[in-house]
Fold this protein.
Amino acid sequence: MSRPTLLGARAAEEDDRGVKRRSPRWSDEPADPAAWTAANDRLYTRFARLYDVVVRVAPVWRRWLRTALPDIRGLRVLEVSFGTGWLLTQYAGRYRTDGVDLNAALVEVARRNLARAGVHADLHQGSVEDLPYPDATFDTVVSTMAFTGYPDAAAAAAELARVTRPGGRLVVVDIAYPRDRNRWGTLLVDRVWKPLGDLVRDLPAVLTDAGFEVRDEEVGGWGSVHRYVATRRSAPGGGHRAGPSGDV
């Protein structure tokens, strides 16, 4: 599967009024994906408890995560890179729910949070590029504020597609440039999210290449936080990138 061709693009494009504007400065993939992943894993191990506190006390972060909830469908749900497990506590009791996260410390934090909330999910430590499930297992797969931490976007998208049943959906909440390139949202991406380590890609293109039909909504951060609802096609490839669905 080829990687999206827009990574690193700098060319100008035109808006609906024919006014030229700079194309998004998409991130390049890390030269050493294993080293990138290992560094992130060490970081989350060090700050797992602090991360848990931040999620608890930051209402805007929880509000962004919560935007994934209305699009969860079906009986079986998988959340990949669930972090502290806060979002799991909001829905896991209503579905047969599994979760996979790379970081062992966060898996333990999430288990404690689920126990405290009185809900259950089967949590496992593992990689988004090698999920421990058969093909077409889940009706909905969820990933929030995590895809920008995956060093190989195409490999991650292909594996998420593999475990999603045909007609099922992938719900992603993550960072991208605002469609109107407004100043504040663009500054957030270029001066905050990317310096913090986020790999910002043309995610609709990535998911379309993996066999999804994609709907894209801006849900916060002056358009820098997006919700992608991607429906799995019956056969790989040939996805349709749907138009925007409004702003929140």
Q: What stands out?
A: Confidence is low (pLDDT under 50) at residues 1-13, 236-243. Helices lie at 33-57, 59-66, 86-91, 104-117, 153-163, 183-193, 203-209. The chain has one domain: 49-241.
